[in-house]
Amino acid sequence: MQGRSWMAAWAMVVGSVSVLGRPARADQAPTTTKVKLELRIAGLPHGGGGCDVEIKPGHAGCRFRPMTCHVRDDGRATLVLDDVQARNADRDCAFAITIREPGQGVVTVRRGLRLSARSTSIPSLTCYVSSPSRLAKAGELKPGRR
Question: Has residue 18 got a pLDDT over 70?
Fold first, then answer.
């Protein structure tokens, strides 16, 4: 019985020393990484000119410069965000993607990505989103149905 309590006490001492041995430093700057964002927007009308997309940080723990781009009729765009910083302990980053299509309402979706601390490759996130015109068409009442 005493062997068990001795082992438990030893585990607590070793655990507390290992935590105290590597304190988190407040003066360390968050690491900056590149993120590849692939947009796939479904339902853009052909010949409609596409849509404009704005990407901003989704919460305060993620920082990068907002970016805007124009997406063609095929609904595909690949963007590389150069200066993404995850400033929270979870290293997660959220992206607020706002889609503006001419003649339709504005749609904002949020997507998230957890950044790896030791990754050597560029993290990639593919976002599948419906266009505002497709959402408006789906929301219309069809005759004979209620």
Answer: no
CA distances from 17 to 22, 81, 89, 133 (A): 9, 40, 21, 59
Structural domains in the chain (count): 1
Print burial letters for 30-60: b (CB count within 10 Å at least 16), e (below 16). eeebebebebebebbbeeeebbebebbbbee
117 falls within a domain: yes
pLDDT over threshold 60, residue 82: yes
The answer to whether 103 touches 44, Cβ cutoff 8 Å, is: no
Portion of the chain with pLDDT greater than 70, in percent = 74
Domain that holds residue 82: 32-132
Spatial CA neighbour of 54 closest among 128, 130, 106: 106
Strand partners, 36: 80, 124
Q: What is the CATH number of the domain that holds 67?
A: 2.60.40
The mean per-residue pLDDT over the stretch 13-40 comes to 65
Domain-located, residue 139: no
- Domain assignment present for residue 6? The answer is no
